[in-house]
Amino acid sequence: MSEAIVNRKAWHDYHIEETVEAGIVLEGSEVKSLRAGRSQLKDGFARVHGGEIYLHNIHISPYAPAGGGGHDPNRTRKLLLHRREIERLDGKQRRQGYTLIPLRLYFNRQGFAKIEIGLAKGKAEHDKRDTLRRREANREMARAIKKRV
To answer: Is the pTM of this model over 0.70?
Structure first.
């Protein structure tokens, strides 16, 4: 099985308050590309339209051996969630400053493509600096402990 495709930038740019696992509607050549790890989640986001949730700005590279030119790499993809979950996320998303962003794309044990989306609020610049400072301090402490032992 291929490794999960992770949106590392999301944890840097947003406070993730909640995560939800959703199915994703894909074409055959998209599945092949995902299994090869040829996707990028960095600029992606999800929106609710007409009671359904769609994923935007996710790039899945075309699969070269696919006949007929493959697929459109930047197309909008439908997510599969229960109606109540979509309504709940839509209600929270409508609050000031919240957005739905993809965190991780992977294949579950049954072989189905799943995406983990997070309800997120954007971080201010000073919050990003604090996070980096805290991470660096933790690394230095770990190094010091490792040297002592």
So the answer is: yes
